[in-house]
């Protein structure tokens, strides 16, 4: 009889993907860490009832997404006369104009391209796993990601030529 791995092994193997999901939705910091903890607490309670052989990473990322949304919903905006300054550091080698160009290039992609690129490159899912989240076959989603990356590279090369 096959069983699911020990929960400790699951946390070790998939903790990084869960933290990436929480950080992607909540930003780095204590909120993402809290959502990560809440994800594994909820998963621990449900783990004994989980079907043997289920895709653990997809299951955990789904829980993480829900827990992150719960954190966002729990935060209520507080009226202020003046917004506080929030420090922001650009990634190395990218200036503010480059960041705006990157956002413009991302907005030029289709929603499907942005989602597939996010699932594959940000969350680390294999293309064969992404159809669990998005409609389409692994091959069509791989094609969408390739087209999106090509468009981003083309936009990036156009920006560099203008510099």
From TrEMBL:
<dbReference type="InterPro" id="IPR013325">
    <property type="entry name" value="RNA_pol_sigma_r2"/>
</dbReference>
<keyword id="KW-0804">Transcription</keyword>
<dbReference type="Pfam" id="PF04542">
    <property type="entry name" value="Sigma70_r2"/>
</dbReference>
<dbReference type="InterPro" id="IPR039425">
    <property type="entry name" value="RNA_pol_sigma-70-like"/>
</dbReference>
<keyword id="KW-0731">Sigma factor</keyword>
<feature type="domain" description="RNA polymerase sigma-70 region 2">
    <location>
        <begin position="11"/>
        <end position="75"/>
    </location>
</feature>
<keyword id="KW-0805">Transcription regulation</keyword>
<keyword id="KW-0238">DNA-binding</keyword>
<comment type="similarity">
    <text>Belongs to the sigma-70 factor family. ECF subfamily.</text>
</comment>
<dbReference type="InterPro" id="IPR013324">
    <property type="entry name" value="RNA_pol_sigma_r3/r4-like"/>
</dbReference>
<dbReference type="InterPro" id="IPR007627">
    <property type="entry name" value="RNA_pol_sigma70_r2"/>
</dbReference>
<protein>
    <submittedName>
        <fullName>RNA polymerase sigma factor</fullName>
    </submittedName>
</protein>
<dbReference type="InterPro" id="IPR014284">
    <property type="entry name" value="RNA_pol_sigma-70_dom"/>
</dbReference>
């Amino acid at each position: 009889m096959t069983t699911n791995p020990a929960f400790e092994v699951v946390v070790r193997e998939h903790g990084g993907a869960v933290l990436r999901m929480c950080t992607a939705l909540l930003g780095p910091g204590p909120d993402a860490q809290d959502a990560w903890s809440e994800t594994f607490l909820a998963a621990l309670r449900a783990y004994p009832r989980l079907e043997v052989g289920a895709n653990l990473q997809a299951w955990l990322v789904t829980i993480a997404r829900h827990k992150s949304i719960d954190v966002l919903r729990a935060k209520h905006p507080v009226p202020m006369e003046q917004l506080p300054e929030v420090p922001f550091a650009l990634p190395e080698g990218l200036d503010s104009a480059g960041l705006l160009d990157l956002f413009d290039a991302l907005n030029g992609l289709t929603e499907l391209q942005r989602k597939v690129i996010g699932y594959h490159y940000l969350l680390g899912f294999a293309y064969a796993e992404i159809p669990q989240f998005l409609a389409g076959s692994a091959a069509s989603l791989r094609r969408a990601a390739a087209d999106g990356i090509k468009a981003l590279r083309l936009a990036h090369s156009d920006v560099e030529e203008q510099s």
